[in-house]
Amino acid sequence: MGRISLCLVAILLAGCSPPPDSPRVVLDARLQALYERACVHCHAAKGSGAPQQGDTAEWARRAGQGEAALLASVRQGKGAMPPMAWCAECSHEDFQQLIAYLRAPKE
Q1: Each residue's pLDDT expressed in tens, for the chain with a length of 107 residues
Q2: How far apart are CA 12 and CA 16, in angstroms?
Q3: Alpha-carbon torsion 39, 66, 55, 22, what sign?
Q4: What CA–CA distance (Å, rounded) separates 71 from 103?
Q5: CA 25 to chain centre
Q6: pTM to 2 decimals?
Q7: What CATH code would you report for 25-103?
Q8: Using CA atoms, how far apart are residues 60 and 9, in angstroms rounded to an integer?
Q9: Is 20 exposed, middle or buried (0-12, 13-18, 19+ CB in 10 A)?
């Protein structure tokens, strides 16, 4: 087999490798409590219209708008989600971590 053929086989085999695992996101106890009080009722309820926790395809579509747009949706409200997403005490960093958790694949 020539060098070019070997290179092509290597490239094709590399394309068959599974993608690297997405990072797992773990919430601390405070953020988990905020998630369960403010987020879970819509983001874990099929048919709510909210992107579901762990639905990587749906979150990837929204992520194309950029993190600033996702945060603006939370702060200003969107659809049935009110401004500050039922979490008036959440900080900017809290929302960033909660969004990361929602976007992460389910185990």
Answers
A1: 555 443 333 333 333 333 345 578 999 999 999 999 999 999 999 999 999 999 999 999 998 999 999 999 999 999 999 999 999 999 999 999 999 999 999 87
A2: 7
A3: negative
A4: 13
A5: 9
A6: 0.77
A7: 1.10.760.10
A8: 31
A9: exposed
Answer for the pair 70, 62: CB distance below 8 angstroms, yes or no. yes
**Which residues neighbour 50 within 8 Å (Cβ) at sequence distance 6 or greater?**
42, 43, 79, 80, 81
- Enumerate the domain spans of the chain: 25-103
Cα–Cα distance for residue pair 84/68, rounded to 1 Å? 14
Angle between the N-to-C axes of helices 56-63 and 92-103, in degrees from 0 to 180, rounded to the nearest 10: 130
Q: Which two tokens stand for residue 6?
A: 């070997």
Neighbouring C-beta atoms of residue 87, cutoff 10 Å? 17
